[in-house]
């Protein structure tokens, strides 16, 4: 009987080694999974919201009233625009005049519209730099907006104001797409011709 008890005692030990190896393998795999997940999350491959939010390191800053924006070619400091309070504007505006005029057909019309544009921003010079860097995309968006304008609309003051709002939105949409931030508060007509 002593010999019969010895093989039974040895069998559980072998089963224990297999169980121990199985448990160790499961722990190694779980550790690898957790480590891989942490790596992917920290590198931004999973669970990242950075793509939805613009990076804060290079965003334009609002210019408080009384501060002077850095003047560059085609740009003038001024008053008005964005962030107005009961005492007047809260922020200093910078103006930028687009160098070339815009000419387009009007929607469902034989008439042409030609406009010169300037924009204002209450932010620092980065918005102007973004406008200059993406001038071709901005020009295209402005021309598309002009081509989508009805003839009757541009002959009324309300229609012209609506066109200004639509142009500001089109420009901001391009800047948001390209730089993650718009920043144009108003669009101004420097000339306005319909033929």
Automatic annotation (TrEMBL):
One Pfam short name: FliL
Main location (coarse class): membrane
Residue span of region Disordered: 49-90
GO biological process, alphabetically ordered: bacterial-type flagellum-dependent swarming motility; chemotaxis
Subcellular location: Cell inner membrane; Cell membrane
TM regions (residue ranges): 20-41
Keywords, sorted A to Z: Cell inner membrane, Cell membrane, Cell projection, Chemotaxis, Cilium, Flagellar rotation, Flagellum, Membrane, Transmembrane, Transmembrane helix
Topology with respect to the bilayer: Single-pass membrane protein
Family assignment from sequence similarity: Belongs to the FliL family.
Protein name as annotated: Flagellar protein FliL
């Amino acid at each position: 009987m002593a010999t019969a008890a010895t093989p039974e005692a040895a069998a559980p030990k072998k089963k224990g080694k297999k169980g121990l190896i199985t448990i160790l393998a499961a722990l190694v795999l779980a550790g690898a999974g957790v480590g891989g997940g942490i790596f992917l999350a920290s590198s931004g491959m999973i669970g990242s919201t950075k793509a939805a939010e613009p990076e804060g390191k290079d965003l334009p800053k609002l210019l408080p009233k009384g501060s002077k924006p850095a003047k560059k070619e085609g740009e003038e400091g001024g008053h008005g625009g964005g962030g107005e309070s009961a005492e007047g504007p809260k922020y200093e505006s910078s103006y930028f005049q687009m160098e070339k005029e815009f000419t387009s057909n009007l929607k469902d019309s034989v008439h042409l519209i030609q406009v010169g544009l300037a924009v204002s921003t209450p932010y620092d010079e980065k918005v102007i730099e973004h406008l200059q860097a993406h001038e071709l995309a901005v020009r295209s968006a402005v021309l598309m907006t002009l081509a989508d304008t009805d003839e009757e609309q541009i002959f009324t003051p309300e229609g012209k104001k609506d066109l200004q709002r639509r142009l500001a939105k089109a420009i901001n949409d391009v800047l948001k797409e390209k730089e993650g931030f718009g920043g144009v508060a108003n669009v101004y007509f420097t000339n306005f011709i319909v033929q």
